[in-house]
Amino acid sequence: MKQSYKAKIAKRLTFVTALLVMLVFGIIYLVVDFTVVDNIDRELEIETNKHVGQIFLANGEIKFVHKDEWQEQEHQEIQLNPIFIEIVDLEGNSMDKSPNLGSNRLTFHPDWKSKEGAWTIKIGDQELRQKQMLLKYEGKEEGYLLVATSFEDARELLNNLRNILLLLYPGILISLFFTMRFVAGKSIQPIQKIIAKTNQITQSSLDERVPVLDQEDEIGQLTKSINELLNRLELSMIREKQFTSDASHELRTPLSVLRGTLEVLIRKPRTSEEYVSKIQTALSSIDRMSSMIDQLLALARVEKGAISPKDEVEILSFVEEVAEQIQRETGREIHFHTQESIPLFVKVSEKSLQMIMNNLIHNAIKYSEGTIDLEVKYENGKPIIFVNDQGQGIGEDSINKIFDPFFRDQSALEKLIPGTGLGLAIVKKLAQESGIDVSVSSEIGHGSTFRLGF
Ligand code: ADP
Question: Which domains does the chain have, with CATH numbers?
Answer without folding.
Answer: 5-159 (3.30.450), 218-302 (1.10.287.130), 307-453 (3.30.565.10)
